[in-house]
Amino acid sequence: MKNYVIAALSGVALMLSSHVIAADLEAGKSKAAEACASCHGADGNSPAPNFPKIGGQYRTYIEKVLKDYKSGTRNDPIMNGMAASLSTADIENLAFYYSRQSGTLNSNK
After folding, report:
1. Of the CATH numbers 3.20.20.80, 1.10.760.10, 1.10.150.120, 3.20.20.30, which one belongs to the domain with range 24-99?
2. Model's pTM, two decimal places?
């Protein structure tokens, strides 16, 4: 029984790690420069107060938000259009890239 539990947990860990490894940091960086940096900044820390800072956000959060914009579940005229052309791999790569960046706090000054 103990060996069965260990094998099952190992299988789950392998599946989860393969999802993490599947994203491509360099592809995310390239796509970010192409599609996101003009508003959100190269590292996700936009100096403009009207664009959210996404650097350092949780990967799963960024993936969910982009998927919601793509599907229309979340509505923003600019982001719906930007997300519409993103593939599943693009979304995963962008989320991985931005989650690896350092976030900065918004200033209310």
Report:
1. 1.10.760.10
2. 0.76
